[in-house]
């Protein structure tokens, strides 16, 4: 009986020690797991911060590029530099800068087309002058080869006087018969005037009258 009581006492002591040890072990924090969670959470927050910072920087660069573009347009387009009395001295809005830029580009297109037409006209004039130059060179050369030829020919001044007399006579009838108040009236009158005053017989009479008049002036 004494041995049995001793074994029971030792068993209770061991069981209490085991319970105390398990309780103590359970109360001790698991530092390895918590360190791992802490580092993982820190890494996540750091990654979010980096993404947020990168997004902020990209947005700032985008806004700066847009602002610089509008500033460059306002500096390049002359109409943006002119004072607009409707808005006073306040800064031009982006919409106004864009509209003024569009208007200026359209103006440049019109000026370019106008200059191209002027260049085309000048090229035609140059070509005509070259042809006239060649013709006059041929006339001069022919006159130098035969200096006595053409003395009895009609002078250019006389030709011009004949042409002027014919045109003056036609203009008098044109001015008396044609109404230029509107294009419709001009279109309605012009054909009747041509049929009446530009007949071959009428033109022949005009030319003969001009020649008689010049003959009387010369002799």
Automatic annotation (TrEMBL):
Record field: transmembrane: none
Nucleotidyltransferase keyword on record: no
Assigned keywords, A-Z: Activator, Coiled coil, Cytoplasm, DNA-binding, Nucleus, Phosphoprotein, Repressor, Transcription, Transcription regulation
GO CC annotations, alphabetized: cytoplasm; nucleoplasm
Entry's Gene Ontology molecular function annotations: DNA-binding transcription factor activity, RNA polymerase II-specific; protein dimerization activity; RNA polymerase II cis-regulatory region sequence-specific DNA binding; RNA polymerase II-specific DNA-binding transcription factor binding
Compositional bias annotation for Polar residues: 19-30
UniProt cross-references to CDD domains, sorted A to Z: bHLHzip_Mlx
Cellular compartments annotated: Cytoplasm; Nucleus
PROSITE patterns reported in the protein's UniProt record: BHLH
Biological process per Gene Ontology, one example term: positive regulation of transcription by RNA polymerase II
Domain (BHLH): residue spans on this chain: 50-108
PANTHER family with a match to the protein in the record: BASIC HELIX-LOOP-HELIX ZIP TRANSCRIPTION FACTOR, MAX-LIKE PROTEIN X
Its job: Transcription regulator. Forms a sequence-specific DNA-binding protein complex with MAD1, MAD4, MNT, WBSCR14 and MLXIP which recognizes the core sequence 5'-CACGTG-3'. The TCFL4-MAD1, TCFL4-MAD4, TCFL4-WBSCR14 complexes are transcriptional repressors. Plays a role in transcriptional activation of glycolytic target genes. Involved in glucose-responsive gene regulation.
Name this polypeptide is given: Max-like protein X
């Amino acid at each position: 009986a004494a041995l049995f009581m001793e074994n029971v006492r030792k068993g209770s002591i061991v069981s209490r020690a085991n319970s105390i040890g398990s309780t103590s072990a359970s109360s001790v924090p698991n530092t390895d797991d918590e360190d791992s969670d802490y580092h993982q959470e820190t890494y996540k927050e750091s990654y979010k911060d980096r993404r947020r910072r990168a997004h902020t920087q990209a947005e700032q660069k985008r806004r700066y590029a847009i602002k610089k573009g509008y500033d460059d347009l306002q500096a390049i387009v002359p109409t943006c530099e002119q004072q607009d009395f409707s808005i006073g001295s306040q800064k031009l809005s982006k919409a106004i800068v864009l509209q003024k830029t569009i208007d200026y580009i359209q103006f440049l297109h019109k000026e370019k087309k106008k200059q191209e037409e002027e260049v085309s006209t000048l090229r035609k004039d140059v070509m005509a002058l070259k042809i006239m130059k060649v013709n006059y060179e041929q006339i001069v050369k022919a006159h130098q080869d035969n200096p006595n030829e053409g003395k009895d020919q009609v002078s250019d001044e006389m030709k011009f006087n004949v042409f002027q007399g014919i045109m003056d006579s036609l203009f008098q009838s044109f001015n008396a018969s044609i109404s230029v108040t509107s294009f419709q009236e001009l279109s309605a009158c012009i054909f009747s005037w041509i049929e009446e005053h530009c007949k071959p017989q009428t033109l022949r009479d005009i030319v003969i009258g001009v020649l008689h008049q010049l003959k009387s002036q010369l002799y």
